[in-house]
Design goal:
It is a single chain. Helices cover 39% and strands 15% of the residues. By secondary structure, it is α/β, with parallel strands linked by helices. It has a single domain, classed as NAD(P)-binding Rossmann-like Domain (Rossmann fold, 3-Layer(aba) Sandwich), CATH 3.40.50.720. Strands 3-2-1-4-5-6-7 form a seven-stranded parallel sheet, with helices on both faces. β1, α2 and β2 form a beta-alpha-beta unit. α2 crosses α6 and α3 runs parallel beside α4. The radius of gyration is 17 Å and the shape is globular.
Length: 245
């Protein structure tokens, strides 16, 4: 999935300093935004390693893992770090939802959203930090515009993404300049995320959604900043995004 040269020219003008990507762990890298990020890392000369329930179709190196199992997620990251001394990035793009009124969503489904989106994010970052501190690497956590603004029938998703916002801001304060930390808040994207939902929980027929490759360009920008120059928060969407501002 080639990056857009026009976008690249805007976010990284000629003469701007970029650092080498090295190895980048991408959670949820077999579909959606994660897939776009893994492809973008590969095309930019880095080595994406995907953590997902299924292997990526593009053949990127991967670890098959359920991110709701935080111990397994940490073990997977440690295996990757053991194979790749140049681990310099983590992008936590994995995310799920369980739409519906709180009283209608089964407890297991509701709690799995928290486990994958929030606890899985923290587990992957926790396990990667020792290596990232050695390489002066970077973390990009993926929240959502629904980490800033709440909607009904989305309590699990909002709770998880509000949690990712708080976790990431706390991590920034904790790590200082030892590891770069960026919070990404994308709007609606053209991904399978909305597939299989009841019609009322899908974007309308006139909705304009962002191509995930364009959001991935913003992730690359954050990952390739020189040490000491951090992109702290990025909200990226189409201009007509209904959940912002």
């Amino acid at each position: 999935m080639p990056s857009d040269p026009a976008v690249s020219a805007v976010i990284d003008p000629p003469g701007a300093q970029r650092v080498a990507l090295g190895t980048v762990i991408v959670t949820g890298g077999s579909s959606g935004l994660g897939r776009a990020v893994a492809d973008a890392v590969d095309l930019a000369g880095g080595t994406p390693v995907v953590l997902d329930l299924v292997a990526p179709a593009e053949g990127h190196e991967h670890e098959c893992v359920d991110l709701a199992d935080t111990a397994a997620a940490e073990d997977a990251v440690r295996r990757v770090a053991g194979r790749h001394e140049d681990l310099r990035g983590v992008v936590t793009a994995a995310g799920i939802d369980a739409c519906g009124a709180l009283v209608d969503v089964e407890r297991e489904a509701w709690e799995r959203v928290i486990a994958v989106n929030l606890l899985g994010t923290a587990a992957v970052v926790r396990a990667a930090l020792p290596q990232l501190m050695r390489t002066r690497g970077r973390v990009v956590t993926v929240a959502s515009t629904l980490g800033w603004r709440a909607l009904g029938d989305a309590t699990a998703y909002c709770a998880s993404k509000f949690g990712v916002v708080g976790f990431t801001r706390g991590l920034m304060a904790e790590l200082g300049d030892s590891v770069g930390v960026t919070l990404l808040l994308p709007g609606g994207m053209q991904t399978p995320f909305f597939d299989g939902r009841p019609e009322r929980y899908r974007p309308g027929p006139d909705a304009v959604l962002a191509p995930p490759a364009a959001i991935a360009e913003a992730v690359l920008f954050a990952l390739t900043r020189p040490p000491g120059v951090d992109v702290r928060e990025l909200m990226v969407s189409v201009g007509s995004e209904p959940s912002w501002p």
